[in-house]
């Protein structure tokens, strides 16, 4: 249950300018449609305040995050507020990927669509096409500090200005009538020396967001209660209902270093008192606020934590992604059934369920029907009318499902070279098996060039304070994207290329059995348990830490992927941050075969994809030289011998061994595990601090 959020920013109107990325639109509360009153809007209050790439909106500045603009910060609004934007189009575009939708429905059972961000390309620079599209956002935090006089107040005390139609970066909030930091005495003579009062000049000083916030582990986020804090939970002694506050930054950029002061009673209090465990006990309990939804959750009694705007744990995106594979007949029918459910009611589908011609007419403008038979259309109608899984069945799927399940079809496809020659162009996947060179290390058994690929990424929610490790976590930790169960989620469709390497499974299994008996592996297990129990989220106590520690083969494949990313970046023409890993590394179970392989890929949202510089490295001569060079480079680190002998010991809880920024770590955009679970000793024989010999999969550098 939710209640309205009283805090509201000003409304705005659009700037009709071409876009090369989804636009961020400043909007008011209620049903957000910042472009709805464009004809009557004031010029000084334009809605367009910035733009961002689709990948940034998915992983960095998505719904519920705080996006820094040059003069203030905003929060992209919930999915319900996007609906007025979408209603400007007769047909809402969608991305078809049944395998990804099936996984998302485990947690969000009513989702029927994957939608791209509201944006469309422009044919030329002066075109206004797409200027009526954008992502609605609210100003947050809504407490601002004047840079001219340190005045701290709510948004209503400041004036929004955005006058330049082609410079949304100039949009700002200003404190009109700012007195400055110098106080003028009553007896001070005028500049003319005749005792007359000086003529008042209306000073306008820019305002910046007050950077202190409160958050709880259930994903709520709220403004810091500045007035209550400075008066220690009481009213102002001078009786001021809305006392004027000042936030004096004594050491900018050094955390909670500011001092609060009430101008009415001159009471002061440092923000540093809110830090740490002792400071947390002085903070109020959570009000259950969701600024992105303009609402509150009821009955949240969690203890809040002080968090700074811009902190790395303020927002963690929860996403799922798949590589589009050639679709089966069953998957194609699922796509048609989902499209029918979205476009028509159950009564309408029932009326035409036996009429393939009408079904084809209804679906023709919403999805590609090339190669779809009448039989498929009739089967899709039957599937669209089938009742959804009941709650008990969904709970069972949630309990048993693992994110690895999304990777299994991709791994199985890559194990069948006979399918490569019969690839479907509609899937966007084109792979070619390459010969392994004579000098390629023997444990690398297969090389596959991924000439073309299409990757679908979807956002299913987000968390605060602590990252969501897997979809099967406690569902309450996943912050909702809308007040009601969503029927669609935002997604991106990227195209690119890559190189796939597969390791010899018998060699991996024999090596893994040896590693499990070493003291280094036992130290990693103990460090993982310590790390898990010290996590910020209280839900960590509900999960067995052993289920979250990847097997040694994952450490092996992960470390090799990082070494190759660093080496490939110097040869392929793409920056290291543009290369990403996709790891296939899990032991055999009753439901899936063992896997040990990796895909280094680069993708882009551009319709043409990438330029081929990465896939060219799969050629035998180039690849074997690159792999050998990467392994030899990894045998030495500028931080050795400290790095080579690093083993976590109590009370240390870091999740890596012989790995650091000098030798293995990669950028956040490249690594799927935030530089955890890395150890060079698993690849190459390195000296250890205790003299123990750790089994090295590739042996010594002389062997490669």
Automatic annotation (TrEMBL):
Query: InterPro entries per the record?
Result: DrmB, MZB
Q: Where is the composition biased (Low complexity)?
A: 13-23
One of the Pfam families matching this protein, by short name: MZB
Q: Where is the composition biased (Pro residues)?
A: 1-12
Q: Where is this region: Disordered?
A: 1-38, 181-206
Query: MrfA-like Zn-binding domain spans which residues?
Result: 560-664
NCBIfam families, per database record: DrmB_fam (NF038324)
Q: What is this protein called?
A: DUF1998 domain-containing protein
Lineage of source species? Bacteria, Bacillati, Actinomycetota, Actinomycetes, Frankiales
């Amino acid at each position: 249950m939710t209640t309205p959020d009283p805090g509201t920013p000003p409304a705005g109107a659009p700037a009709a300018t071409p876009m090369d990325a989804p636009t961020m639109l400043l909007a008011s509360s209620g049903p957000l449609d910042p472009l709805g009153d464009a004809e009557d809007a004031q010029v000084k209050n334009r809605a367009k305040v910035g733009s961002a790439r689709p990948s940034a909106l998915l992983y960095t500045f998505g719904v519920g995050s705080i996006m820094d603009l040059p003069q203030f910060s905003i929060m992209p609004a919930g999915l319900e507020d996007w609906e007025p934007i979408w209603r400007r189009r007769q047909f809402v575009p969608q991305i078809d990927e049944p395998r990804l939708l099936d996984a998302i429905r485990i947690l969000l059972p009513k989702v029927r669509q994957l939608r791209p961000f509201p944006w469309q390309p422009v044919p030329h620079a002066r075109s206004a096409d797409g200027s009526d599209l954008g992502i609605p956002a609210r100003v947050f935090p809504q407490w601002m500090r004047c840079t001219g006089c340190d005045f701290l107040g709510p948004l209503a005390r400041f004036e929004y200005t955005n006058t330049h139609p082609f410079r949304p970066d100039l949009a700002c909030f200003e404190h009109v009538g700012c007195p400055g930091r110098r106080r003028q005495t009553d007896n001070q003579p005028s500049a003319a020396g005749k005792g007359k009062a000086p003529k008042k000049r209306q000073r306008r000083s820019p305002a910046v967001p007050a950077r202190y916030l409160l958050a709880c582990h259930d994903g709520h986020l709220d403004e810091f209660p500045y007035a209550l804090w400075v008066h220690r939970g009481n009213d102002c002694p001078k009786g001021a209902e809305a006392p004027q506050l000042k936030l004096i930054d004594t050491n900018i950029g050094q955390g909670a270093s500011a001092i609060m002061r009430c101008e009415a009673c001159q009471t002061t209090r440092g923000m540093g008192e809110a830090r740490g465990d002792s400071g947390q006990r002085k903070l109020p309990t959570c009000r259950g606020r969701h600024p992105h939804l303009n609402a509150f959750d009821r009955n949240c009694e969690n203890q809040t934590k002080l968090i700074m705007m811009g902190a790395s744990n303020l927002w963690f995106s929860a996403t799922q992604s798949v590589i589009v594979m050639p679709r089966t007949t069953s998957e194609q029918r699922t796509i048609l059934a989902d499209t029918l459910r979205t476009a028509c009611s159950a009564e309408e589908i029932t009326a035409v369920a036996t009429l393939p011609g009408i079904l084809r007419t209804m679906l023709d403008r919403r999805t590609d029907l090339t190669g779809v038979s009448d039989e498929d259309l009739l089967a899709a109608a039957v599937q669209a009318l089938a009742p959804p899984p009941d709650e008990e069945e969904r709970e069972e799927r949630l309990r048993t499902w693992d994110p690895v399940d999304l990777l299994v079809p991709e791994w199985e496809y890559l194990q069948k070279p006979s399918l490569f020659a019969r690839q479907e162009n509609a899937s966007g996947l084109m792979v070619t098996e390459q010969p392994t060179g004579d000098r390629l290390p023997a444990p690398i058994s297969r090389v596959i060039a991924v000439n073309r690929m299409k990757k679908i990424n979807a956002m299913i929610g987000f968390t605060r304070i602590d990252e969501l490790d897997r979809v099967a976590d406690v569902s309450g930790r996943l912050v909702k994207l809308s007040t009601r169960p969503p029927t669609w989620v935002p997604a991106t469709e990227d195209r690119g290329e890559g190189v796939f390497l597969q390791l010899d499974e018998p060699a991996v299994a024999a090596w893994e059995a040896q590693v499990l008996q070493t003291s280094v592996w036992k130290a990693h297990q103990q460090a993982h348990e310590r790390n898990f129990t010290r996590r910020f989220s209280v839900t960590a106590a509900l999960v067995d830490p052993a289920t979250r520690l990847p097997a040694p083969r994952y450490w092996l494949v992960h470390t090799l992927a990082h070494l190759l990313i660093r080496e490939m970046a110097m040869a392929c023409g793409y920056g290291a941050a543009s290369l990403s890993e996709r790891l296939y590394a899990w032991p055999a179970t009753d439901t899936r075969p063992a896997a040990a392989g990796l895909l280094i890929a680069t993708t882009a949202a551009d319709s043409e994809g990438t330029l081929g510089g990465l896939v060219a490295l799969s050629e035998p001569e180039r690849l074997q030289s690159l792999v050998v060079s990467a392994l030899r480079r990894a045998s030495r680190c500028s931080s050795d011998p400290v790095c080579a002998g690093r083993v976590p010991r109590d009370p240390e809880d870091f999740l890596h061994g012989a790995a650091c920024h000098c030798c293995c770590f990669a950028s956040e955009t490249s690594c799927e595990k935030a530089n955890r679970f890395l150890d060079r000793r698993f690849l190459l024989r390195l000296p250890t601090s205790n003299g123990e010999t750790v089994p090295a999969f590739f042996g010594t550098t002389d062997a490669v």
